[in-house]
Amino acid sequence: LPERSTNLLGVRHILLVLSGKGGVGKSTLSTELALALRHRGHRVGILDVDLCGPSIPRMLRVQDRAVHQCDSGWVPVFVGQDRAIALMSIGFLLERPDDAVVWRGPKKNALIKQFVTDVAWGDLDFLIVDTPPGTSDEHISTVEALRPYRLLGAILVTTPQ
Amino acid sequence: PAEAEELRARLRAVRHTVLVLSGKGGVGKSTFSAALAHGLAADEHKQVALLDIDICGPSIPKMMGLEGEQVHQSGSGWSPVYVEENLGVMSVGFLLSSPDDAVIWRGPKKNGLIKQFLRDVDWGEIDYLIVDTPPGTSDEHLSIVQYLSATRIDGAVIVTTPQEISLQDVRKEINFCHKVKLPIIGVVENMSGFVCPKCKKESQIFPPTTGGAEKMCQNLNVSLLGKVPLDPQIGRTCDRGQSFLSEAPESPATLSYRSIIQRIQEYCEQHHSQEEKM
Fold it and tell me: Which of B134, B142, B174 sits opposite A102 (nearest CB)?
């Protein structure tokens, strides 16, 4: 089992947002869920592990922000005046927004592991993990890296057809 | 080298290859690939092949009305599943024991299957090989471009929907094409407006807040092949495994599809004759 990183110790509940299918509204739901939870007074984090098509930064209007490093890893981007939503996405690591992340599995896996263990979330009531479509590297790596932690569960998103 | 030679031999009899790509999921790549396949195969003198390399979410078997079909092996390799005499299909969907089986594979295993699809399937002589891809810019995309270097890829058709969240990912896909030197035939904008069948008023269900595919194509100097409006018949025929072009010949979406397919054909034929001259 991978070791527990201290960075997730302050996180009360971890939720995965999944679908097999692309374009059904996973990122949209993750964003709306985070905003709704914040509205109820909770501290929320979003971990966007869609490395090829990271949508969350634009949805929260923070696409122009940058992430910084601290002693315990990356400092996530805090959204809004109250800083009640914290976000980590590969979108913040791209030099240019149109740069394609053309990586094979192993490189994606390495970054996802880092995203799970090396983001200094602080204390969160909810961490929402938004995923890309499919059942492949990103999903396997995310679930493996999250294994030492208490996962609340997964929400599956679909459309009617 | 030996492997490359094997692929080259297998793909020697393929005249034109078109990749259908998008950075974004759920924009209608498979829907478009199916329509393109049916459209090209309407000419019974053309031999068309549709290869579905979306290994996690293979939509093509259902869309082509081929759910439950199995792949047969012969001395000359795997046999594609034929929808018409001149339209053959291959997908991981045909290899699953149940349609709900999840294919939970990492990149290398997916690449292996894609290579098999190209090397072991007895496609025969094909005029058009259409390759439907999953969303993203990862293993499947790198591998298909690499393996198809044994033949010539005419180009990529990139599918999007009008909203910026899609275009954001599609610009990345366009950059991917530039990076791997894959020519771009053009962009198709799906779900581009909806005309109410009752009052005929047009609504933008996915508003093009940043100018839609049209603006993006202007900015990036790529062709806009066409815009396809939303038509509930499209989703319905896909679910039922029917050809939308045949079931709804009068739909504005059909007219758009036909015009786009024509432009793709012209592009392929033009480039072919240019190469033959050279």
Answer: B142
What is the Cα–Cα distance from B59 to A153, expressed in whole angstroms?
27
Residues 6+ apart with CB under 8 A from A46: A30, A31, A34, A56, A60, A85, A86, A87, A88, A89, A127, A128, A129, A130
How many angstroms away from the CA of B215 is the closest CA of chain A? 15
Alpha-carbon gap: B122 to the closest alpha carbon of chain A (Å): 28
What Cα–Cα distance (Å) separates residue A75 from each residue in A15, A69, A114, B219? 20, 6, 12, 34
The residue assigned the tokens 């390759």 is B131
Q: What is the CA radius of gyration of chain B?
A: 18
Alpha carbons B179 and B158: distance in angstroms, whole number: 15
Indicate the helix (H) or strand (E) that contains A86. strand A85-89
CATH code for residues A11-157: 3.40.50.300
pTM here?
0.94
Which residues of chain B lie closer than 8 angstroms to A137, CB-CB? 106-107, 138-139
What are B45-54's pLDDT values in tens digits? Answer: 999 999 999 9
> Could you give the ipTM of this predicted complex?
0.91
Domains of chain B: 2-276 (3.40.50.300)
For residue B6, give the nearest of B116, B81, B139 by alpha carbon: B116
Within 8 A of A134 by CB-CB distance, chain B residues are 56-57, 134
As a whole number of Å, the CA-based R_g of chain A is: 14
**Which of B165, B171, B173 is opposite residue A58, by nearest beta carbon?**
B165
Helix (H, G, I), strand (E, B) or coil at A62: coil
How far apart, in whole angstroms, are the C-alpha atoms of residue B114 and residue B117?
A: 5
Strands (DSSP E) found in chain B: 14-21, 48-52, 72-74, 77-79, 81-84, 87-91, 126-132, 155-160, 184-189, 194-195, 202-203, 224-227
Phi first, then psi: give them for residue B51, nearest 5 degrees.
-110, 120
Domain spans, chain A: 11-157
* DSSP SS3 for A17: strand
Predicted confidence (pLDDT) per residue in B216-271, tens digit: 999 999 999 999 999 999 999 999 999 999 999 999 999 999 999 999 999 999 97
